[in-house]
Batch of 2 targets.
Target 1
Amino acid sequence: MDHNHLEREEKESFPAKEVQELISSFPRARGLVLFKHLCQYQGFWVGRIGLEGVILAQQHFQAQPTDIILSSSPKSGTTWLKALGFAIVTRNRYDHLNSPLLTKVAHECLPVWIEFSFIQNKSCRSPDLPLLATHTSFSCLPKSVITTPGCKIVYICRDPKDTFISLWHFVNSNIPKGTDPFPLEEAVELFCQGLSFQGPYWDHVLEYWNASLEMPEKVLFLKYEDIKSNPVFHVKRLAEFMGYPFTLEEESRGMVQKVVELCSFEKLSNLEVNKTGKYNMLDKFEIENRSFFRKGAVGDWKNYLTPEMSARFDQISEQKWKASGLSFNVASS
Ligand code: A3P
């Protein structure tokens, strides 16, 4: 990897001198991420480039009562949630034949990341959509997200073992030519130590879980596995929470099923745009759209993790989540 090039890019993206100085004082580490430097900020490991955005958003982002914030840790269902949110909100504008989801990757249909918009000096909102996205941990969200009545958060997460395997594949499929892939053992080590993008993963999930219990009208907590096992039920629940409930008439016309099908892994992963297109991240890095669609399966970790690795994940889940009642052993609904 051209580390000098990366360093240069990272430095150029820090216009605010005070924020730059602040960031350089945080602990740094190499982690399981596309760009290897992570900084520890308020308990979470964040990529250097995104961290400036997180801090600027904390300082300047003003939530609106109509905002619906789609939140996730990377590789736990972000693309799916964005597609579902977009399809639900725009279902009276587009149908399954002319939806922008057919020609653009979900990240372009719904382009606003709260934290990244501050780095790019772009608007925090799409003019005709109430949806915004973030990977920021609950405790690092801008305060106005919590204090603004009406502003809602939908969080999606996934079994840590599947999230990890998905992340490991994603990182390896996007590393620059000539760079050695992350060996699985090393990747397990980094992820279990919390050294992944927005890690520790377990803490990211736990914070949103607790928030959803404390503020169920504000935070909807979704599990990837639950949506997989009963998509119609969860899409209806999602639409209702977002304030876009399906009417009985829509239900009788099969509208829920249409949204489910349009956003399904099978449909989206087979579209030309998602097989051959590229997503321009932060106007800096190109990511192949197909790397957002790998298998879309539950339990794929079994094909990769040794019993010892699996036991290590289980032990951390037990230790971090036992008191909270959170688990991924059984689909909850
Ligand atoms: P796998 O790597 O296990 O296949 P994110 O969107 O947060 O980056 O997560 C990517 C993961 O979600 C990948 O998992 C990807 O295949 C899966 N995914 C993407 N779109 C999906 C969809 N429409 N339905 C189900 N899973 C989807």
Target 2
Amino acid sequence: MSGKTGAGTTEVDVVVIGAGAAGLMCAATAAYQGHRVLVLDHANKAGKKILMSGGGRCNFTNLNTTPEHFVSANPHFCKSALKRYSPWHFVELVERHGIEHVEKAPGQLFCADSSKDILGILLTECEWAGAEIRLKTDIRRVRQTASGFALSTSGGSVQCTKLVVACGGLSIPTMGATGFGYQLAEQFGLDVLPTRAGLVPFTLQPDDKAWLAALSGISTDVVAQTAGASFAEPMLITHRGLSGPAMLQVSSFWTPGQPVTVDWLPQVADPFAQLVEERREHPNRGLERWLRQYFSQRLAAALADQFGWQGNLQQFNNERLASVAATLKGWAFKPSGTEGYRTAEVTLGGVDTDAISSKTFEVKTVPGLHFIGEVLDVTGQLGGFNFQWAWANGWCTGLAL
Ligand code: FDA
């Protein structure tokens, strides 16, 4: 598809930097419009994050996607693309390729078999549309020219009229993540809002780690809250800290130094009333026994031990029972931090959307330059929203080029 000039320079209409979710979607869509499209990626394989996503089954969309599922300094920015390319559009593509899928939780669609199927769809679409993908290609320099952009790469020079930056965020550097997209944004005078790891496990202060690490592997349903954001999901205790969907979700709203509150008993509206009743009926029973209705034996014992809830219920006056109930409904801890980009699913912050058209994803001040996907300051919650964002704005950009 690409043409080579006499000087060994490749000339195409569109270069997409990044053979990830957004880049491949954009490349196929643009190539179907008749553009000569070249995708460049420094990795040895396309779509590595797609392959590792959703525990190997890729949670490829969420049927309940709304703009409220995204974190951004400009909450309106994602609206247009999400409306134009809905989860059903992607489901239609998946079904057209004969890929079976399952709804594991309400709205969350996963591959029935393997994430490879989703990557397979994108690579097939690129091939059918005629988009070329060049891997193991380092991009050394990008320059604006009179007719577009000139790239100097480890595989030679490339010239294009449109350049799409789809090189993702900083999470999981071992999978090829770099800050190159942010560098390019800065090179072209755009603001990059501070980045931080999102959808990431918390690490704990020594006091909390001391009792929780021994419970590593236990998962329990909680409601976790921070900064006004609240999620009813399982929490997983690990030997490093607290993880599981509840913690991953709140991590995207957490700022260092802030507490996270955990309701250990979301299924019990009024534990105080229940405890008073239990004391009346079974004054000689230990409180731990009551806890065992809701928690595993190990967790019940650890909670009783940590918070000093030993003894028979008759030894608990109302004030003490109220304190037990308050702790169970609102245990607050201050994370020491997060596991960072090493394990984060996403990067919060990024290229400031103020400078970008929400319809074409073109930089308002640099015609022909587009930013898409996770490199932008748009981050989805857990549950397939991040891929839906990648498909939606990749598709919109591919059409707009
Ligand atoms: P993406 O990261 O997919 O692609 C960027 C591409 O750019 C990569 O191929 C990279 O090699 C390339 N690149 C980077 N720097 C470069 C450079 N300097 N030169 C050339 N190329 C460069 N989301 C979801 O909705 N459902 C899910 O199930 C999951 N699961 C999940 C699990 C794990 C472990 C992670 C880390 C993430 C998820 N996600 C997810 C998030 C999802 O993977 C992510 O939001 C999208 O992949 C973002 O798509 P992009 O195309 O923007 O970046």
